[in-house]
Amino acid sequence: MALMDTHADEINRHLAKYPDRRSAVMPLLYIAQQEYGHITDEAVREIAGIVGVDETHVHGIVGFYTMYYDEPKGKHLLYICTDLPCALKGAEAFSQQVCEHLGVENHGTTEDGLFTVENVMCIGACHRAPVMQDNFHFHEDMTLEKAKKLIDDLRREHEASKPYTH
Length: 166
Ligand code: FES
Prior knowledge:
Elements: H1 3-6, H2 8-17, H3 25-36, H4 41-51, H5 55-64, E1 76-81, H6 84-88, H7 91-102, E2 115-120, E3 132-134, E4 137-139, H8 144-161
Parallel strand pairs: 1-2
Antiparallel strand pairs: 1-3, 3-4
Helix pairs in contact: 3-4, 4-5
Residues 81, 83, 85-86, 122-126, 129, 131 line the site of FE2/S2 (inorganic) cluster.
């Protein structure tokens, strides 16, 4: 189903904010990513059509900004800051431990599709390093134990939200 079928109000709200509708590309990409888990070619085509630009222009934006994904990622993106202040507090080793715990490499996704781990640059909470971000939630002063608990909690939440089947 097209984005305009499912998110027309939201899309129109964004389009109304800008004198030039081309400026709405980024918020529309964000809607697409929320909806499909990543930016599909179909979404690029649709967004290009809505704002009136070439698909190449939209692909260029997706390729430029690291917050957009053109391939499937885990339901939970675990961003681990390994920039200098966090690195000084052991972020590299922490990231490696989290990856080992989940059985993935940096940028890898677990087989169940629940988690993707990505090392990132500063996410603005250096005073509480090392820092990890789970989608939009910040987790500060991280340790492997805290990360394991968070991962367990998120797995439990996911299990609990599955439809009951018998
Ligand atoms: S360096 Fe890690 S949050 Fe700033």
